[in-house]
Design a protein that fits this description.
The chain has 215 residues and is α+β, with helices and mostly antiparallel strands. The chain has two domains: 1-69, no CATH class; 78-180, no CATH class. The protein has five helices and eight strands, in the order H-H-E-E-E-E-E-E-E-H-E-H-H. Helix 1 packs antiparallel against helix 2 and helix 2 (36-69) packs antiparallel against helix 5 (184-214). It is elongated and about 80 Å long. The N and C termini lie far apart (53 Å).
Amino acid sequence: MILLGIIIQLIIFTLLAVVIALPLAGIVCWRSRKHRKRNTILALLSPFVFIYSFYFTCLIGGFTCASIFDTGCGMDGYYKTDLPNGYQIESLADDFDREYFTGYIRKDGARVVEWVTKIKIVGDSICGEQSFEPAGRDHYFVIDTKTDSITQYKSLREAKEKTPTVVTGLTHMEAFYYKSWPWVIPLAIIAFVVSSGLVFLLWFIVNKISARWRN
């Protein structure tokens, strides 16, 4: 499943690189007065180098960071992050069906709340939405992580009437994971720097080789 997901992602990124490379090469070819052929080829290759290096840096870095920080990374469908006072939330997602992305909250190995679709942290409290089948049965909950008490509301109307703040500012599960992992932004910055550096290195090496051939 992981390999199939990676292959599909690579196909998507390849199509993205083609969409970027063709007009970029056309502009470079039109604007170049010298070394038009060389510059056009480099313009064609640059988006592939950037996108592939960015993807594989994120892929390898994601699994590495997930192991170091004991979180999921999402690339294998597994998501996990820590919540206040020993609580954790986990998800096992299908790469081909992200419409119904849910998680379950647990503490000390026992599941506390299941089918969580949205969540937010307010101090020591965990607020969230649960979605049950059939569609439309949305419940809401508040966990006081200090006392381990759970307050549940069986409808949006009940939650708004009793505790309106429960239903405001909730974040979808997948977005919540990426926001909560401390390594996501640094890894994205590193991947961008590495990818940009490789593109620069490609142009630098080709220009150096071309200069030697001319001499």
